[in-house]
Amino acid sequence: MRGANSIKDQSLIKRLLPCTLHILLPIPLLPIILLSLYFYPFSLPSSPPTKLSPPSSTSTPLLPSAEKGYVCDTPCDYSNGRWVRDKRDPLYNGTTCATIKESQNCIINGRQDSSYLYWRWKPNQCHLPRFEPNTFLQLIVNKHLAFVGDSLARNQIESLLCLLSTVSAPKRVHHKGSRRWYFASHNASVSLYWSPFLVQGVQRSNTGPLHNIVHLDRNEKWAKDVHEMDLIVLSVGNWFLVPSVFYEGGKVLGCLNCEGLGYTDIGFYGPLRKALRATLSSIIEKKGGKGNGVNVIVRTFSPSHFDGDWDKEGTCSKTRPYMKEMKVGEVDEEIRRIEMEEVENAKVKAKEFGGFSLEALDVTKLSWLRPDGHPGAYMNHFPFGPGHVQNDCVHWCLPGPIDSWNEILLEMMKSQECRLSLVNLSSSH
Ligand SMILES: *[C@@H]1O[C@H](CO)[C@@H](O)[C@H](O)[C@H]1NC(C)=O
Ligand SMILES: *[C@@H]1O[C@H](CO)[C@@H](O)[C@H](O)[C@H]1NC(C)=O
Ligand SMILES: *[C@@H]1O[C@H](CO)[C@@H](O)[C@H](O)[C@H]1NC(C)=O
Questions:
Q1: Where are the membrane-spanning stretches (predicted)?
Q2: Known catalytic residue at 217
């Protein structure tokens, strides 16, 4: 299992890096934008999204045992802000946490500069508290938290496991279909389902197929476990940038970068939107109205930072964050916009069912501002020996900026708990 997953992650890097490079360059991008403009006028990258409602939250640790009479804090927009200096050490490091994937264990791999570890995200409207492992664990007592998606889902869950391990050691448990950890102290399970498209698909590989095959309207295997998930964090995006053939109703809808196959190139914005919409609809239909409620969180697109060739020294080797005036790249912003819009669309559908909450964990901007947070060449152990350099400018070092994703996730969970408690209070009077 471990071996298979690391092969998948490696292959994502190898295939994605050259593709991502293309996507980041304006000229090769033009045909994609033009095509998606032609077929999907809805997804036109016009003005940056400003009207979408931000994930709301609270900064008061409210637990199920809290006395009545409390107030939920005013919602905060965590998406906009800046990185500020922080003197405190990260909660964990590559020697204290055993579950860090080798290729993201930057310090152990020889990364010398450490100033990238000493920043914290400061939202414009509020203070984002440092991660509180005990609070997080209390919020998942008797629950199952599932991360579903690509290797960035794995990156985030490994950050979370390291953060939580500082107070309670999880046990790796066997489960068919996921990687799963169990916190006996809290009877809580945390799992990772590999599903890079969320919907049914086959990743391209050297042995074939040469393009991803993606069925935009079919459930993946993980969906059969939805009934036993209490909180689902979805992570999707990067694999849609890889050459693909997209299917709908069992028929080819079109493709992305598939010269020679005779299909129409429809870009990836439309297919990504369809896959996310189908996934959210299917979760709502499965879980809605079941009484116990479920939270679904869509983690928005995580930008990569290739500022050179992926196999050359010095690519994504920055050592400081960008300051806030640096605008998010056009493609990253557009993918984020699609994800935010689909969350809003799904909220409308979810309203028909009670006890169902759906939010976006909007990390695009804060991540974009951290070109210094990727492994780069330190995806390999002491990388600058003989042979050529490889750079990972997609995933994030652990510890690193991705820890802040989990800080925001915790605030969202606290806020959700607070709202549920208030509903309970008002319904019992
Ligand atoms: C990791 O953290 C431990 C405990 O805080 C500390 O003793 C150790 O020096 C740290 N290691 C590194 C590589 O920073
Ligand atoms: C542990 O949590 C599961 C749900 O994840 C629940 O079904 C079970 O009853 C819990 N066990 C105890 C002892 O509370
Ligand atoms: C709300 O009430 C339900 C049923 O009475 C209970 O199971 C649930 O734990 C309560 N939630 C909170 C957050 O108090």
A1: 21-40
A2: no
At 345, which amino acid appears? N
* CA–centroid distance for 319 within its chain: 23
Q: Which ligand is nearest to the CA of 425?
A: 3
CA 353 / ligand 3 centre spacing (Å): 17
Mutate to test the pocket of ligand 3, among 420, 421, 426, 427 (most ligand atoms within 8 A of CB): 420
Q: Which residues in 251-274 are b (16+ Cβ under 10 Å) and which e? A: eebbbbbbeeeebebbbbbbbbbb
The active-site residue out of 225, 372, 392, 403 is 392
pLDDT at res. 95: 86
- 338: domain CATH number is 3.40.50.1110
Q: Residue 77: its pLDDT value, please?
A: 96
Domain that residue 122 falls in: 2-427
pLDDT at 59: 38
Q: Considering only CA atoms, which residue is closest to atom 8 of ligand 2?
A: 142
Cα of 178 vs its chain's centroid, Å? 17
CB atoms within 10 A of CB 158: 22
State the pLDDT at residue 317. Answer: 85
Contact by Cβ (8 Å): 316, 376: yes
Does the C-beta of 420 come closer than 6 Å to ligand 3?
A: yes
* Cβ atoms of 336 and 362 closer than 8 Å: yes
Ligand that comes closest to the CA of residue 189: 2
Question: Which amino acid does the sequence have at 283?
Answer: I
Q: Return the best residue to mutate from 93, 108, 163 for the ligand 1 pocket (most ligand atoms within 8 A of CB).
A: 93
How many distinct structural domains can be found in the chain? 1
Q: What is the rounded distance in angstroms from the CA atom of residue 58 to the CA atom of residue 419?
A: 10
Note the pLDDT of residue 324.
66
Determine the pLDDT at residue 111: 92
Atom of ligand 2 minimally distant from the CA of 144:
5
Long-range contacts of 7-11 (CB under 8 A, 24+ apart): 8/151, 8/194, 8/203, 9/101, 9/103, 9/151, 9/154, 9/395, 10/103, 11/203, 11/205
Pocket lined around ligand 2, Cβ cut-off 6 Å: 142-144, 187
For the chain of 429 residues, list the mean pLDDT of each consecutive stretch of 10.
43 48 36 32 33 37 44 86 96 90 90 95 96 96 97 97 96 96 98 98 91 96 94 95 96 95 96 98 84 80 86 83 86 97 94 82 97 91 74 94 98 87 69
- What DSSP character marks residue 392? B
